[in-house]
Amino acid sequence: MTTENSQHLEAIQDIRNMMKKSTRFLSLSGLSGVFAGIYALLGIFAVNYYFYYLRTHDNNEFVISLVMNIQRNFIIIAFLVLFFSIITAYFFSSRKAKREGHNLFDHNAIRVLINLCIPLVAGGVFCISFLYNRDYTYIAPSMLLFYGMALINASKYTYDDIRYFGICEIILGLISSFDLLNGMLYWTIGFGVLHIVYGAVMWFKYEKKR
């Protein structure tokens, strides 16, 4: 009787796992999060070096041109970080999907992208309005808050762990809104350190054992 009950429980567990796989996007690789955090740290290092260069060099024509194009150069750095993060996420996630016999761009992946992009696009436009008005004070907390909301929104169709990652980003954004002079520090923690920690946890939890 015990053996029969055990077999029934295993069958139920198998059915639950199959249903979960059919309704969730599970090809997201933790390594993509690790590399996204590394790219963010490199971008922040580039921004800090940019300011250091402006402070320590003579007021020549090159430095003047850098000062005049601060917004443009920051946008270029942010675009490069985003570009390499997307490319790396595609590489590792497609490799994971192929290894597990899944289609990377199935209906679950599309649902994740849609639910992720809605808050991200809204937050991006909101932050661009700050740039347009040359008011940089609330850019850091706004980016963290909208990114956290995007992660929570997308977590309904992928790993539940992403919800906790999003909550951490929101908490960090709220703290940053009360400490506006240290926006770069919270950027470093939110987009750099937390990404690396989250990616490493996801990799050890879902990928290493396989």
Span between termini: 33 Å
Tell how many strands the DSSP assignment holds: 0
Q: What percentage of the residues does DSSP assign to strands (E)?
A: under 5%
Average pLDDT number:
82
Q: Name the overall outline.
A: globular
Q: Helix tally?
A: 8
Question: How many distinct folded domains?
Answer: 1
Detailed description of the structure:
The chain is mainly α. Helix content is 82%, strand content 0%. It has eight helices and no strands. The longest helix has 31 residues, at 70-100. The radius of gyration is 21 Å and the shape is globular. The model is unreliable at 17-21 (pLDDT under 50).
What attributes characterize this protein structure?
single chain, 210 residues, mainly alpha
Topology:
Elements (H helix, E strand, L loop, with lengths): L1 H22 L6 H27 L4 H8 L1 H31 L6 H26 L6 H16 L6 H17 L5 H25 L3
Summarize the structure.
This protein has 210 residues and is mostly helical. It has helices spanning 2-23, 30-56, 61-68, 70-100, 107-132, 139-154, 161-177, 183-207.
